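Researcher: Let's walk through a ligand-bound prediction step by step. First, I give you the protein sequence. Second, the SMILES string for zinc ion. Third, you return the three-dimensional complex as structure tokens. Ready?
Model: Ready.
Researcher: Here are steps one and two:
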Amino acid sequence: MSHRRALRFSKTTCPYCGGREVARDDLKGDLICTTCGEVVSRRETRAVGKFDVAQTLKRNGKMDFRTLREATGASDDKLFAVLQSMIQMGLLQEIGGVYSLTKRGQRWYRQRLGQEWGY
Ligand SMILES: [Zn+2]
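Model: Step three, the predicted complex:
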């Protein structure tokens, strides 16, 4: 029996060098190319925009992090960054882990909505 490894090979091809030896690090959930060493993906990194977050909150009312993540399809780190930035801009408030749009956030959303529609 060979020695155990923490890495398991995945079927992904490396987008940087085209290498086939992309391994999954089970501890971190990262996919790492063993040829060029690039981290191919940190789970599924999906970005989300402020507008998407505002729209989701406008439709659903107050939401916690998990439901927001599911609704927007964003990955944890990206969603967290957007939420923090919106809080800093005064568009969003977080009370006890529940996020909602502030008055300013609602105004911002309506303005952006107008721009989306080309008013
Ligand atoms: Zn590579």
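Researcher: And what stands out?
Model: The helical segments are 50-60, 65-72, 76-88, 103-116. Residues 50-116 form a domain with the Arc Repressor Mutant, subunit A fold (CATH 1.10.10.10).
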